[in-house]
Design brief:
The complex is a heterodimer of chains A (454) and B (174). Chain A is mainly α and 454 residues long. Helix content of chain A is 73%, strand content 0%. Chain B is built from six helices and no strands. Classes of the chains: A mainly alpha (454), B mainly alpha (174). Chains A and B meet through helix 1, helix 3, helix 4, helix 5 and helix 6 of A and helix 2 and helix 3 of B.
């Protein structure tokens, strides 16, 4: 098998950067997901005027690791009447889809596994759409009524909201004129505007649809604990359960990256072409240094010696990373430019993704859960027509500015106004319709009597 | 070398899971193996640098149609096979169709063997650098060369969609 070995070696030699990125994604994403859980608990605690996890490590910084260990040690149950094979495959499927779709996401100008695929963002959206299979099959294989109702709800919800998300993305693709991830970000640099400003309706419809797609509150009906115990993962425990959990958080990162790339300028710093805002380039190093100083300040006040030592370690880490940022800054126009671009690109990209995910958490802790018919009405009667109107209007604005020389911002402003007016009309019409529908439901007793009589 | 390894990997998965799809008794298991077959075929499309075909196969067939399949299978109990579905004549018709398809495939392989310069079963793809972007090519042919058929097909789909809504609506209104 020496020619085989030889070709494998050649393969590794040509693609080592991509392989490294892939390994890094697979290793780091579960860790990041764990820490997103910690941040979520902290944000929830803050909104409810509590402290959140504080015991494991200073400010609960080691909590995710403790949780992961606990999940690994837990007993792994498979119900007797479950479909063994599919019960085993389903969570793996969810996780694989989420991680694979990250392959085409550009976390920075140099950190991307599938660099030059022409379909770019479409790959991310398409492959992450395979994740629901894991939910549906897992719910079916559990052989449990709660699970199967959760699975059915999730399918119906996904089919409805994926259409909206698709149309919202189309409005961004129209502006960019390409599907390639790197080209999309670069056109936002040359257009001198993030597409959230050119297509605000597209961004907000995508935001709502992406919350629904990741099954997060207020759209978390597939796992509504007051109705369905835990929905599709009722029968799952231990490591399999944690796979579903990881897949949910990985999917959050995926949809946030898609939104960031298309509407928030990807890895570009805010206002990349404005010269006098260049001091923003110093922001990453400064921010980390401030965090480090804060950690040093807090280290003396920790209750235990181990915790204060850990705090010192965190401070040291912050200072080291800040130093790396500061040292890379002079390389902006030198042969080592890729170091500067990669570091700073990754910083801005991750900052935007975090802001996007913060909106998810904010909505989760402030809004009550939808009822299922409300969810469907919002999707089909309001969001899909709105997204359609938005696509048409963005197309009209593009045609106006390129064919008739109308100022691009003016065209966008007018068409966005038209889209918002359409949204108002939709809402009014929907109110009337739903009032009529509930009146019909109230008068439904006659139908029941009729059917009994017939 | 590596190209053929990847091709046989995907092709093997496609053939084996297609066979499993036909032989499983459980409808959900069949659906899972159909998904595997479709994904493996998508992998072969990707190897042929047909990126757009790859992703539309995944989005349309796997992400759209198969989700609906599974939805229907879960709602309708199919574990009790109806006797009239398993009729005797169906077996012979299936055999005939399989024979015809097998003959066709054999003929194509035989023809490919005669053409010189071609690999036997391994598709020879042009280097990626020489190919023009897939998506743009597709858009050009759809909106320039085949505009009228494309529009007719879209109107047909729209009519089907409106018809489905009207039929569903009639039942709830009554």
């Amino acid at each position: 098998m020496s020619p085989m070995l030889h070709s494998i070696l050649a393969f590794v030699q040509t693609w080592w950067v991509e392989l490294l990125c892939a390994v890094l994604i697979i290793v780091v994403v579960p860790l990041i997901a764990g820490y997103i859980v910690l941040v979520e608990r902290k944000v929830m605690a803050d909104m409810q005027a509590r402290l959140g996890p504080m015991r494991v490590g200073p400010h609960g910084l080691l909590q995710p690791i403790a949780d992961a260990l606990k999940l690994l040690i837990k007993e792994d149950l498979i119900p007797d009447n479950a479909d063994q094979f599919i019960f085993w495959v389903a969570p793996v499927l969810s996780m694989t889809a989420a991680l694979t779709s990250m392959g085409a996401v550009a976390f920075g100008p140099w950190f991307q596994v599938a660099r030059d695929i022409n379909i770019g963002l479409l790959f991310v959206v398409g492959v992450s759409a395979l994740g629901p299979f894991g939910i549906v099959l897992g719910g079916w294989a559990s052989n449990n009524h709660y699970s199967i109702i959760g699975a059915l709800r999730s399918t119906a919800q996904l089919i409805s909201y994926e259409t909206t998300a698709g149309f919202a993305l189309v409005s961004g693709f129209l502006l960019a004129g390409t599907l390639n991830v790197r080209a999309i970000v670069e056109t936002q640099r040359t257009d001198q505007a993030w597409y959230i400003f050119l297509a605000p309706v597209g961004f907000f419809t995508y935001l709502i649809a992406s919350i629904a797609e990741t099954n997060r509150a207020p759209f978390d009906l597939p796992e509504a604990e007051s109705e369905l115990v835990a929905g599709y993962m009722t029968e799952y425990s231990g490591f399999r359960w944690s796979l579903y959990f990881l897949a949910e958080y990985a999917n959050m990162i995926v949809v946030a990256s898609v939104g960031t790339t298309l509407f928030l300028g990807g890895w570009l710093r805010p206002f990349p072409n404005v010269r006098w805002l260049a001091w923003l380039d110093a922001a990453p190093a400064l921010l980390l240094a401030v965090v480090g100083v804060y950690c040093v300040f807090r280290a003396g006040k920790q209750p235990a010696r181990v915790q204060s030592l850990f705090m010192w370690a965190v401070a040291l880490g912050c200072f080291v990373i800040a130093a790396i940022f500061a040292l890379a800054a002079p390389f902006r126009h030198l042969p080592l430019q890729f170091m500067h671009d990669g570091l700073y690109g990754a910083f801005w990209f991750l900052l935007k993704v975090s802001a996007y995910i913060y909106i998810f958490m904010w909505l989760r802790f402030t809004l009550p859960r939808f009822r299922f018919d409300q969810l469907m009405r919002l999707g089909w009667h309001i969001l899909i027509p709105l997204a359609l109107v938005n696509v048409v209007n963005v197309g009209i604005a593009l045609a106006l500015s390129s064919e008739f020389g109308v100022n691009r911002w003016l065209a966008m402003l007018v068409t966005t106004g038209v889209t918002l007016a359409a949204a108002m009309l939709l809402l009014r019409w929907n109110d009337k319709y739903s009032a009529a529908a509930s009146a019909a439901l109230l008068a439904d007793s006659s139908i029941v009597e009729d059917s009994h009589a017939g | 070398m590596l190209d053929s390894v990847i091709f046989y990997f995907f092709a093997g998965i496609a053939v084996i899971s297609a066979a499993l799809m036909v032989t499983r008794r459980n409808a959900i298991h069949s659906a899972v193996f159909l998904i595997t077959t479709l994904l493996a075929t998508a992998g072969i499309f990707l190897q042929l640098r047909a990126e757009f075909l790859f992703i539309s196969q995944i989005i349309l067939y796997v992400g759209g149609i198969m989700v609906l399949f599974i939805f229907v299978i879960m709602l309708v109990r199919l574990d009790v096979p109806l006797p009239q579905i398993r009729s005797r004549t169906q077996k012979w018709i299936a055999l005939l169709v399989a024979l015809a398809v097998g003959l066709e495939a054999g003929f194509v392989i035989w023809q490919a063997r005669k053409a010189d310069g071609q690999g036997l079963l391994i598709p020879n793809a042009a280097p990626a650098s020489q190919l023009r972007p897939n998506t743009e090519e597709l858009a050009r042919s759809l909106f320039e060369s085949y505009l009228l058929p494309f529009e007719i097909a879209s109107v047909l789909l729209l009519v089907a969609m409106v018809g489905a809504v009207v039929m569903a609506k009639k039942r709830t209104d009554a």
